[in-house]
């Protein structure tokens, strides 16, 4: 499972930070940061989700009010928009 985070879409509500500790606040930018992620495209960050964090990652994606976070299974199928 992996997660994709579109930092450009983020509006800085930081609800993802409350749901999964892989997200951190960047108060200066007014956006969240996905720790240990790789930037695949401009402002699109991707990281693998450890098995023990899958539940929290899904909640972080669901909590985002602007759907800046998506979760995909190992086959590339989107689980959470």
UniProtKB/TrEMBL annotation:
Stretches assigned to coiled coil: none
Any Pfam family the entry gives: Fer4_15
MF term (GO), any: metal ion binding
Keyword annotations of the record: Electron transport, Iron, Iron-sulfur, Metal-binding, Transport
Transmembrane segments: none
InterPro entries per record: Fe-S_cluster_ET (IPR051269)
Keyword Transport: yes
PANTHER family (alphabetical): FERREDOXIN
The protein's name in its UniProt record: Ferredoxin
Organism listed in the record: Haloarcula limicola
Lineage: Archaea, Methanobacteriati, Methanobacteriota, Stenosarchaea group, Halobacteria
